[in-house]
Design goal:
This protein is mainly alpha-helical. It has one domain. The chain has helices spanning about 1-15, 25-35, 40-60, 65, 75-100, 105-110, 115-135, 150-160, 170-180, 185-210, 215-245, 250-270.
Length: about 270
């Protein structure tokens, strides 16, 4: 029962932190200190990646109509617009292919609490600075249809920065989008859509490396984590989209700074 309980907690953490720009890595690092499953390190590493796939399914479910170019409820113009949106997502994923070449090196060299703390704090400061700057600037991209291929490609390079632990994939892409004049709702939604091919590929590779030989308890642990991650992701996405209609991202910036300091102090003292 303990492993199922931990799986539920991990699913909750994943579902919240994958979409809110506060870094799932930093939270899972702290969770690992207090919650341990009776499974192998290989399974645990695979588990953390695969429950991300459940988070992606939440995006597909919530935005199915918007992402479906074959919907009979769409006009020809809307279908063309949806296909163009997918093409922009593909363009934005190109830099990630380059990033995959150095992914293992980054995991080996930079997966430590100092780097994670630094990235939490740095991107927290960036959120605050960029939002303060944007108060006096005009939004260049106010809708997904206005998002150009060049802008999508630029956002894709910011996503590559998320390979550094503690950065947060959504945090890096949203910061990048805000920096180049994309409106908050557009930045958030495009981040969600960009996650679909990116995280499906990452989860698929991890599953292939681990194999498909699970014990019955491992299968249950994985299923529970995925179900919880999916459900929590639905609420997290809805919360974020509702929140940014009335607020900016500075609250997440302050939270990241506090979390970064907590991680640094905890592992500096007790690590």
């Amino acid at each position: 029962m303990w492993d199922i309980f931990v799986s539920i907690i991990m699913g909750i953490i994943q579902g919240i932190t994958e979409w809110l720009p506060i870094s799932s890595t930093g939270h899972l690092l702290l969770a690992d200190e207090f919650l341990h499953m009776n499974v192998s390190d290989e399974f645990m590493n695979m588990f953390k990646v695969v429950i991300q796939l459940a988070s992606v399914i939440a995006v597909i479910v919530l935005y199915f109509h918007k992402l479906n170019p074959f919907s009979p409820r769409k006009s020809y113009k809307e279908k063309v617009g949806t296909i163009q949106l997918w093409m922009k997502v593909v363009v934005a994923c190109i830099p990630s292919a380059v990033g995959l070449l150095i992914n293992d090196i980054i995991d080996e060299k930079l997966s430590n609490y100092i780097v994670i703390s630094a990235m939490l704090i740095i991107y927290g400061i960036l959120f605050i600075v960029i939002e303060n700057r944007n108060k006096h600037m005009r939004v260049r991209t106010a809708s997904l249809s206005e998002l150009t291929y060049l802008t999508a490609f630029a956002i894709g390079w910011f996503q590559v920065l998320a390979m550094i632990p503690g950065t947060s994939r959504s945090g890096a892409t949203i910061v990048g989008a805000l920096l180049i004049g994309v409106a908050r709702p557009v930045a958030a939604e495009f981040t969600f859509f960009l996650a679909i091919p990116t995280m499906i590929a990452a989860s698929g590779l991890k599953v292939i490396k681990f194999g498909f030989h699970y014990t019955s308890i491992e299968a249950v642990i994985l299923a529970v984590g995925c179900i919880v991650s999916f459900i929590v992701s639905v609420f997290a996405i809805k919360f974020l989209m509702g929140y940014i209609k009335k607020h900016d991202f500075k609250a997440f910036g302050y939270y990241r700074i506090v979390l970064g300091v907590v991680v640094l102090l905890y592992f500096g003292i007790f690590g």
